[in-house]
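Tutorial, part two.
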Amino acid sequence: MATVPVDRSERAVSEDKGLISFEEAMEKLSRDERFRATVYSMNTLLVQKGIYSPEEFEFQFRQFARKNLR
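Running the prediction step on this input gives:
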């Protein structure tokens, strides 16, 4: 799973000069890409805040895959 470490993410918030605006991202990304960006962002935040670990995420992901690939 690709998440950004907390210390790097906090720096990115203050040094976001290289990022496009949220509005521009919403305009340029497809609906599918916006959904994936939302899932990525929420997952990254939940892992960084210690709500769950990457291992717990992967376990839940595998359970979902098993149920839906039958």
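Residues 31-48 form the longest helix (18 residues). In part three we will examine how such features are distributed along the chain.
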